[in-house]
Amino acid sequence: MVFHLVIVQLVLVFIGSALSQEFSLIGEALEGGSPCRNGVLFMERFIGGPPSKENYWNGSIDFDLYKNLPEARISLFLTAPATIFLDEEDGRVLSDSDAFHITFLKKDDGSFNGKFRVQGRPKGDFPNVAGLTLNNVDICPNLTEWKPTILGAGNTGSIDLANRDDETDPVSLSPCGQRKVQHQGLITNGFPSEEGDWPWHAAIYHVDSIIFSYKCGGTLVSSRAVITAGHCVVDNNNIIVPERVLVRLGQHNRLVTNSNTKEYRVYKIIPHEEFDTTNLRNDIAILKLATEVSFTNYIQPACLWDKSSTDLNEVVKEAGYVVGWGFNEQDELSDILSQGRMPVVSFTTCLSSNRPFFGHYLSDMNYCAGFRNGTSVCNGDSGGGMFFKVNNIFRLRGIVSLAVTREDKNICNSKHYVIFTDSAKYLNWIETHLLD
What we know:
Blueprint: E1 6-10, E2 24-26, E3 30-33, E4 41-46, E5 56-61, E6 72-78, E7 82-86, E8 91-95, E9 100-104, E10 115-120, E11 129-134, E12 137-138, E13 191-192, E14 201-208, E15 211-220, E16 225-228, E17 234-235, E18 238-239, E19 245-249, E20 262-271, E21 285-289, E22 319-324, E23 338-345, H1 347-353, H2 355-361, E24 366-369, E25 385-390, E26 393-403, E27 418-422, H3 427-434
Antiparallel strand pairs: 1-7, 2-3, 3-4, 4-5, 5-10, 6-9, 6-11, 7-10, 8-9, 11-12, 13-23, 14-15, 14-19, 15-16, 16-21, 17-18, 19-20, 20-21, 22-23, 22-25, 23-24, 24-27, 25-26, 26-27
Helix pairs in contact: 1-2
Protein name: Peptidase S1 domain-containing protein
Pfam family, one: Trypsin
Subcellular location: Secreted
């Protein structure tokens, strides 16, 4: 095909990551492959050509992997400055300081032609893929870096993020799971956070007339979706109507809003089809926001868990990050967003600690975490996430679900473990509804 007319230039500096997958030669002069494990994006290029033009690749998105797409908007993040060429009959492309945003046009048969060309700078670094989202959902985690055959003066460069100090990383342009505001001494158990530490944490309110009541936490995972616990969208044993739910993002002080705080209405609530209010099985829900979120230094999405690594044993004894405005030592809701770390414990350890309680609620779709020493999540933290930092990316693993209550008050007992919904076990369900 001929690429013409629609040209957008983007200048950026991006740090990429790499895995061990290989790209291969196709015939004598064509090389290509997919940086994504699911093969959703295919990259290819002819070897050789003038040095001023050989720093390029042709891309193709396989939209057939996603059935009945109402629209097809991709955001493409690159590791080096580049220009994108797109046939004007196939779509439109815009750019900002972070990425290219391509809206593909639906054809008469309902399909999309997902082809485009990425042209790097002459003698510049090769523009590898650093991130790819479809309709604001990350569809290409754990990217493979392509090291193409550049015959001229072009070169290829990347930096391994895994060996860098967590607190001194530069601001990244990754599509999810990256803090934009850096602080020192980031995590201390049970202590207040600083603004911007958890830009994906959401405050969920139930609205009654003009009264806003804080209900739960949640996690922003795209520009239109917040994941929370199923019981956070229940009122009087019924799923609450979307018009009665308000989401605040970028909020640090529960009682005070500032210019970093944005409010969003909800147009659709999606609890799991098998959510059970009696035993909180499948305690997960998605809030679809009525308007698209504008990302800032204080509002960013977290990454979902990697589908290739969902075995819970891989995180048992590992400490995840938890945040919330839950009850403090004075049995009052915290004003400032608090943070802490707590280890995941095995099914056996959790069950043996309190068999009557955990025997009723534990399943293969949730897990326990905590210290049993007073450091815990509590009422008010429900729906918030447990995150693990994997290769410098914060990924959502757990959703605060329920805890043992104290004998003297109907609030959590911090001497017991806490049950988290294992979001990694619901990835297919989540992705299906994010693309609705």
